[in-house]
Amino acid sequence: MFKNAKFARYSIVLMLLGVCFMFFYSGLQVDHLNILTPYLSQNYGWDDLKITNPVTYASLVCIILYLIIGALFVKFGVKKILLPCLALLALGCLGIAAAGDNYGLYFVSLFIVRIMVVPLQMGGFMLSANWFIKYRGRVLGIVTAGSPLFSIAGIGLLTSVANSLGLKTAYMTIAGVIILLGVLVAFFIKDRPEDAGLFPDGADGAPVSEIEETQDVTLSMILRDSRAWKLIVSYGILQFVIVAMMAYMAVRYITLSTPEDVPNLFVSKALVWLSIGAACGIPMSYVLGWIDDKLGSIKASLVLVVLYFFAVVPLAIMPVGGSVPLMIIWAFGVACMTGGMPTMHPCVTSYVYGRKQYMAANKWIMTIQAIPMAFAVAFMGAFNQMGQLTNAYYALMGLLVIAFITILTMRNIPDANAADREYGAKTNKAA
Fold first, then answer.
1. Element (H, E) at 390
2. Please, which domain of life does this record's source organism belong to (predicted)?
3. pTM (2 decimals)?
């Protein structure tokens, strides 16, 4: 794709911005609760549910927001919708910075932040699906590396800044960077390669697999389509697990801390291994994308589910005081999970529905998936309040088994854009 210099310029900017989108999506969806929960609990005496309730309620709103944002993207394009959303996201971060012990302002600000990260994720996904077919998996593997990058650098940096300079400085800095992203989007992003006089992947002509006209994807079609339900169940579980895991990592380690862990096990030991293990796991985002491009989205999805167990199992069996080998495995799994899921979700949806129908189908699929995902933080909070957090991780493992079996049943679903993908082209040539 870099043989076309004009396409190369657009694609490089898109990938760099995409990494930033996923960095802040991962960080401001639930990951920053690992900073907010200990800080607000220690400084203001707020309990788990008081701190996380804005995220739970916002997640309920996100159920319908996925549909609304998806429909707006289809009708008006990504850029026109993303710019005001970035402005609101920055405003929400400024609100958290200014809140202090004002719970009303904190609640509204965190609520805005949680819902306004949705366009970041969906926008990055749609731009990647619009611009790439043949290289879609590998490009998304690069873009979604932004999620584990937050695990490596973001959590540790925010924790350090919050503890030394306060939450106000940390969130004001985030707001400033988000405003800068909005400026870059305004000047350097096109919704589709065709808008710049180009074709997907930098090709010389239109995709062969898109010669036939495609019809709109309606809710009734989704509800009658077994492929859609398999996507909803399998990737709905993967999204539920990732939200549950990322929201309660710090809490889990704090509950396993000993008096020797100062200030607690998460800060004294786990964060170090999270950075090291996550650095090793970041390339797995690209590896999963490579598998997707070479072997198809179903095989890559099965690998992804297996990698999820690397993140979940260690937290289920982690002893008091921690275990270095388990921490390393956990950190590697977190990177694979946070980078791999956002890589594979748009890949597998595009695999089933094709580039042109991707967002039309995705808006319905993600809307339905958002229903159980909205309760993921509350799910973990409830187990933690009962003193049964260990059992929550065993429940997550059971859900992952269901996801794996569901994806296995999808193995005969064809790739909608196979004629324009490497393995599809090879198959057609051989035929």
1. helix 389-408
2. Bacteria
3. 0.78
Taking residue 90's Cβ as centre, other Cβ atoms within 10 Å add up to: 24
Q: What is the DSSP letter of 199?
A: -
Q: Which of 172, 152, 151, 159 is nearest to 42 (CA)?
A: 159
**Whole-number pLDDT of residue 117:** 94
Distance (Å, whole) CA 423 – CA 427: 6
Tens digits of residue pLDDT in 59-115: 889 888 988 998 899 889 999 999 999 999 999 999 999 998 899 999 999 999 999
- The CATH number corresponding to 7-192+216-430 among 1.10.1200.120, 1.20.1250.20, 3.40.50.80, 3.30.70.100 equals 1.20.1250.20
| Non-local CB neighbours of 385 within 8 Å, separated by 6+ positions | 48, 49
Residues 145/88, Cβ–Cβ less than 8 Å: no
Residues 6 or more apart in contact with residue 116 via CB below 8 angstroms: 85, 86, 88, 89, 92
The alpha carbon of residue 279 and the mean position of all alpha carbons in its chain are separated, in whole angstroms, by 17
Q: Alpha-carbon dihedral of residues 325, 326, 327, 330, nearest 10 degrees?
A: 130
